[in-house]
User: Fold these one by one.
Assistant:
Number 1:
Amino acid sequence: MDILGLGSKVDADFILDPQGQRKQIDVKIDDTKRSSQYIYYDGEDVSGTVQVKLKKNSKVEHQGIRLEFIGQIEMLNDRSTIHEFINLSKLLGFPGELTDSSSIDFNFGNVEKPYESYNGINIKLRYFLRLTIIKRFSNNVFERDICVQQLSQYPEINNSIKMEVGIEDCLHIEFEYNKSKYHLKDVVVGKIYFLLVRIKIKHMEIAIIKKENTGTGPNIYAENETIAKYEIMDGAPVRGESIPIRLFLAGYELTPTMKDVQRKFSVRYFLNLVLVDEEERRYFKQQEIFLWRKQDKDTDKTKQSAKQYAHYQRPTPANQSEENPTENSSVNEVLSSENNSDIPSD
Amino acid sequence: MATIDADNRREIARLPSRPISLEDRYDPPANFLEIEVLNPETHGFGNKRYTDYEIRMRTNLPVFRLKECSVRRRYSDFEWLRKELERDSKIVVPSLPSKAWQRQVPAFLRRDDGIFEDEFIEERRKGLEQFINKVAGHPLAQNERSLHVFLQDTTIDHDKYVPGKVRNS
């Protein structure tokens, strides 16, 4: 956008979903800004219309109108480097003169989108359309971001994690988590069994830690973030006690595990089990878990609302999109089908 | 909150666990360790005085040879222990109550009895108790011979003492 303050003669907008069929997601761009982005999947077309709007009675001479679909990784540490891994380009308009507002249709067919959009601490992976109106002195550039999600199937092998750890002669525990691979709305079910307790434990908590690694080889830059902390035991256990774990992942801002994306970064998740003794000493065990994204089950919105509002009139299409956001439908998966009415979820 | 119906929500039902035995549930806990610093006594006369404290320990931890013991230690013995642990163990050793140099200024320059004031001794006693409990409960400190000598030997024999590790008997 022009910063010169005089106001640009040209403005452009992208119409991506004229029939209102595509889902949107609220994305946090930085600490203050949020925006709504359309969700795309791997292999889908990216198509729509570019609306170029001209100020009244103005003319813009240009050397061409170009539209690009770009996928890039931006590394935000000291030297902000940008690595493009996708660049598709189309010429929407030959050099000439814009005299009137116009709409230009476009279609990038079967676009490969191999990674999920990611907005992290040191890394931004984004996909976006960029319209450039090429001019002699300064181009007009307009961008629109889209959000790409990577869906996976249930893993064929998903072993539980079971381990005995401790400090010799002081503390021995056996911990168990029901799976090693969890989807983003899954529940971590587990238990801690105390085999030997010779220290004075005050409480125990479990945390989800995200580790974002930037770069490879000798220049790895690691950034850790504690996404969640959840107390699972208050008080002193004795030998033979079992403490249950039940941690609902849907409540936290998690992304799928991303390993070695374009050899530039990784995002991995760990469960950190922490025991704290009476002198505030901390004993911990970190265990990596693999997170993946499952397809939401809400494809038939009308069917679902009919079940929920059985006693009322079927809502009009205008109401539907507000009252059945995608989040609700995934929670329904965890609840059994009988619980649709009054019992609030845990 | 309604209890979770495990049959309908099997995917979040608790993992099966072994029941705890009656002995484990009601026996004294395996982490019993109590150390008290009590009965400060000032010995000697004039400027050759010193104060020592009773260190009374009760425990059922197998790493300690004696399950009950009582010894007398003075501030410099605590300093010795702290120095040994800082050098040999990998732990961050907590600090001792202050050395109180100001109070050790000669008696004729002071209005009170310096380090032999009751209030000061009580403050120091509390600090020493905090210190020894924090240290003795640390799994890594429990492996150091200096801690065992400090807590359980009647006197600290600096000639015979050799630094080293203690294993569980």
Number 2:
Amino acid sequence: MLRKGITGSFGAAIHGLNTPQLTDGVINRSKRMMLDTLGVGLIGTRTDVFKKALAYSKLFRSDEMSRVWGQTELSLPPPYAAFVNGIAVHSMDFDDTWHPATHPSGAVLPALLALAKTLPRPPSGLDLLLAFNVGIEVQGRLMRFSREAYSIPERFHPPSVVGVMGSAAASAKLLGLSPAQCAHALAIAASSAGAPLANAATQTKPLHVGNAARRGLEAAQLARMGLEGNPDILDVSGGFGVYYKDYGPSAMEGSSSTDFRWILEDQDVAFKRIPAHLGMHWAVDAALAARAKLVAAVGNFDLGRVRKVTLRVPPSKYVNCAFPATEHQARHSFQFNASSALLDNKVTVSSFSRAHVDRPALKELLSKVQVETPGDNPPSFDQMYCEVEIETAQGQSHAARCDTFYGHWRKPLSQEDLVEKFSVNASSVLCTEGVEGVIDVVGNIESVRECSILNAYLSMTSGEEEQLYSTRSM
Amino acid sequence: MISTLQKTIRPVWAVRGLHRSAVEDLKRPAPEDTVTASYGKFISEVKPQHLSPVVLHRSKRMVLDSIGVGLIGSTTDVFELVLRHCQHMYAPDHISSVYGRGGTRLSPILAAFVNGVATHSMDFDDTWHPATHPSGAVLPAVLALSDMLPANSKPSGLDFLLAFNVGLEIQGRLLRFSNEAQNIPKRFHPPTVVGTMGSAAACARLLSLDHSQCGHALAIAASLAGAPMANAATQSKPLHIGNASRLGLEAALLASQGLEASPLILDAVAGVAGFSAFYEDYVPQPIPSPDADGHVFLLEKQDIGFKSFPAHLGMHFVADAAASVHNLLVGVDHGTVSQAKVQEILLRVPKSKYINRPFPESEHEARHSFQFNACTALLDGEVNVQSFSPASMRRPELLALLSRVHVEHPKDNPASFNSMYGEIQVTLVGGEVLRGRCDTFYGHWRNPLSNESLRKKFRNNAGAVLPSEKVEALIDAVEEMDKREDCCALLSHLH
């Protein structure tokens, strides 16, 4: 069944959307996303996977180079800057999550900042904000083309499917491509989409976001040079639909139409307080609450007196890991996150270090954990819950349930807490001037004349980063 | 040889200023019972002596054909475009050769990319069964990597051929994991699925990575695989092969740096898709270890198809059928076919949307059009490189014939290159009906091109870009490859 015109409508919208269409609600939400993304990206430059990707990317030079975040003087060709910065953003699974599920910002912001550096006239903050929102919007639209996208994924990792399309759209917007070129950018990007879920919970997962950013940028650059793909890539069978089992696309309404409404206006993102898969946040909140009940009853938490811990979670194999061996597996383990919360009364960045993962006490607790997947707990970030029940040796039971963790789109982080998360993350790499500079620029980005100033702040490293590099084991 | 290569690779990284953290002694994992581990083991353990004479012979023919189509492909628009794109990015020491461009060098990854694009730019490259274009995904990467290795440790011709064959073998094995792969594809373009994996395997072999790294190279590559069929018959299709080549090389390089990925990428794990994500049905099998008993490469049993003209493989069936009708019409004196004599043309072909195009508008569409290729062969007696030029495509006689074509999809004509046929039925104005049918065109694996025909194709292709001395030198270099100490001779003649 051939329905033409959908791809064309996307090309037209990417080209035609303009700054007057940005509403206050969307500006506010997308600025929060930008800030959070930069913070997690900065702390992510300390990770092993980032270092490997950086070493690899240093094979390349070009006439135009773009900054690598959190480094004083390091630049790479724009696609590779987008690559490594995108990897940094997703390296600790600390970045934003949307509904339907994907990590939208990490695929887009690194590409835009890399591209911005190459333009003859530096874009204004508003240009950047617009392009960013175009990239987010396209992702949201594409995910609504299937029912499959609404559940926790099983086949393809969503950022690798829609992220590269969003990056292509955003880059095409920033480059000012024609409607036809915007459509071709999407088509070219589609041939770079789709990575299997099995690489989640491994060191390669962050590359899914890094590659989405890089290859979307490349798609836009190639489209600008005149490369063409299938102009009906979103319409035809054998097109973008190959990544989904059910696929029903629809056109994007004209940007001048009064019907146009940004998805972000109605559907916010979730920001993470813990560098782990989103599902873990329910488990941690429930575990902390159950622990509090136990402590209220008996005075303290004693591992020796815990007989069994039951987790009631949605069915999702790739985050069901009884004994994680690596930090990546730990970030994708209901059992690990609940146990860490019970043992330490908190879960933080350092909970995933080698030393913490290997603790005998933690392993002992893990051996007491059982997982159940009740029928009423659907694998959807919009509807799932987590219940933690602690049974003591004395036969007492303390349980708590979390339906909506703090940071979820139904219960958003306060602005203060969001900025606090950014400050803690950014301070691991930047000096105070850099940290505050970024907060200031992003906070007022609609008034910023040239967004190149952002890159300057992102390179203001603190002197101690060399020492921290060697002592911190991420 | 293995330890020498490993030792010399480290100084290369150091010269590039790469930070390489101290290499811990990798603890060899106990042999795991997974499909993925069996692949890691095979790639790292297979040796040149496992290559049989038949496999050597067939794969050298593939190397020759692939270079030839790559050379002529360097004259296309799409090649020019991606080359310009890549020239914005270069390595501190420009190293790797670009087909047909003497003054141009690129970094290895980008050379693999543009040469891969060249190879597939005209749809002139080899096709295997189950369907993919195996050589274009592997050869450019292996060439680029060979250029990259230091002068005193270039791979021998045999090492080069081994890596190339590993790249083919892995692709062939992966294609046998599903029934879906047996038919003309509908969802993902096969070179983007298995080609990337083959390139990663070949490069891992050439870099002499250990079991575990070979496994990770495959897993990293899987996250770079997969492109939709809809971009076939467009200018982007050649990038599918270019990207397969470059991304497979990238995966191997990242694996050599220690990047890790899923150790179960090839295995079937319910609820978490690995490589299986690209198929609707998927049953993986381990690959046996190439021990003392040797290893039978798939190429031994299943030969490759080489194309006589630059178009999708399905076109060759209808072109052969139509050419036979052309001969009936013109008789022995080779006159011309007049379109005025033709009332109606019926084509009986398998059902496949992306090669069913009544009025192709671009050269890319024309290479994927049963109708176009049948009518061209009917008119001219053959299809060749020039048939896809704008002038040829615009011919009124051709357009007249195209407007008289009907297509049928008989139930006994399956969408499989191994079992399909192409049938043409031409009804003349006088009422006479002429028929032609082809189920095995010349160049199909069941009716392989002779060595003379293959060399003729190579001379036509390479000669479009290189002087005849280099053309002949390349033919010799490939022929003698397994006997040469290093592959430098081959590399030096490519431009």
Number 3:
Amino acid sequence: MTINELVGSVGLKPLSTFEDRDISGVFVSDMVSDVMAGAKSGNLWLTIQTHKSVIPAANLVDVSAVIITGGKEIPQETVELASKYSIAVLSSELPTFELVGKLYELGLGK
Amino acid sequence: MEMRIIKDVLGASVLGGEDRLGESVEHIYASDLMSDVLAFGKPYSMLLTGLATQQAVISAHMAEFKGVVFIRGKKPKDGAEQFARDNQLVLLSTDLDMFDACARLDESWKKEHHALEKGATEYKREEILLSRELCINGNDFTNAGLVSTQVKSILKKIGLDPKLVRRVAISTYEGEMNVVMHAKSARVNLSITPKLIEVVIDDEGKGIPDVQQAMEEGFTTATEEMRAMGFGSGMGLPNIRKNSDELEVSSEVDKGTKVQMRFFI
Amino acid sequence: MSECRHQWNMTNVRFGFVAFEKCFHCSGVRTFFSKEESPHLGEAYREEEHFWSRVENAQSLRFDLVCSECGRVEDYTELMGLLHCTGCLPECEVEILQQKLEKEKTWLVVAFGHLPPGSDEPFSPEKMKILTDHFNQRRDTSRSRIRVVSFSLIKDFTVCKGEFIHDVGMLSQEPPAERKPLF
Ligand SMILES: Nc1ncnc2c1ncn2[C@@H]1O[C@H](COP(=O)(O)OP(=O)(O)OP(=O)(O)O)[C@@H](O)[C@H]1O
Ligand SMILES: [Mg+2]
Ligand SMILES: [Zn+2]
Ligand SMILES: [Zn+2]
């Protein structure tokens, strides 16, 4: 499944400009240190962190998209930085736990 | 969802609050950011977090959560366990990562919800204080009565009126004995809301050709052996009707029988 | 000579906090790694002519790299964190290099050692190359690449507005209205 396919199926709002790519697995964490240690290339990263420093971390470990959960307001500078790196920033109204349930139903586990 | 089920689903180890595993949570909240837990977490939730510090436990306590599950095998230091003990929190630790932990819990949460919806009573999932699934094996006279004993002790622990507990226990016992005597196996679902207790016994077995007749006092198809053991007076189903506030019996021959009983609190 | 084409993986990962101390007297900044459970921001204390106080605890990790092929271990004890260059100073060498690398679709990341920096370079070019290799081995390099350089490339720390790739305020009980920069 690609990011564009995912966007339609679970009601995500794309915010940055990005290149579509394949998704492989999901990584859930609100800690940049966890992501640096554990995320894999192509992972979707679910977090409630909206600060722009999530983007360099997302880029460093090559996640396919950052999904910011819980309907959080996302600063413009976060979106702009993501666009610079062509990383998808998607916003979801659902809390992390509920969104994981939907992604799992779509078969997006490991 | 009962915290014991959360523990089982996640294959988690218990770091504290073993005696509270029988209590239920109303939501699950996954977060590593403590200000977020305090701002958006709802009371009676279980926190799933990768932040293994005492702060996580304190935040959970302040947000009126019932417990914390640490993911990826993380464990906070002793201070956190002591704090949890002093403040009646359950602490669990699972080796799963956040995605797997959430996915598994969401799946069993939905299953539990589905089972209750089938119970045909219109209450919301938020209202379920406790739900438990148990099993009965047909023809197993040695363990006969264990399920109703378990149901009774759960209800007693909650501190419900002993008269009500007695009615539920007797009805469940009659239903359980019918499975042992007349059917192959059954799943028992006990759920409790602030307003009612529901026991659903759903069995696989020969079924009842004429339910109305079976409900009559004295009607029985029990064998001589069963009678010799003191059963088979044809009083089980009538006894359930007497003790419950609502009773529905549905059956299909060669498939099974479903007995749903409700007791108002 | 071994001909191993090393495959680097993180090992010995230790989570903790990078504690930042700032002197209100001279605006100097220093760091140390803390394994405390719940680090607090401390009261100011005096050390010779400085008045240090803990201004931030950033959630961080320490790790070493191990080659899964030959077992060689490269340690990164001196690594306090990674910094993302914001291009704050046009004449900074990091920014100049970033401009150049961007054309090759390569992103620059700055490895930070202890503050204040000592006179010895803590990160050899080889250490930086290994770290670079690790992050590139973890990514789809047909899209873009990573290059890690030492913080000694930054000329002036006091004016650098680079951003640490770290979480701050993880333990705060207050929902932040606006997340503040590190300093
Ligand atoms: N779960 C069941 N599956 C199949 N048949 C059942 C089941 N429950 C009850 N029956 C049928 O209904 C009859 C009446 O049940 P009831 O519980 O009233 O009496 P009993 O089980 O025969 O005797 P007692 O309960 O007094 O020991 C049973 O004899 C049996 O034929
Ligand atoms: Mg009976
Ligand atoms: Zn090697
Ligand atoms: Zn000073």
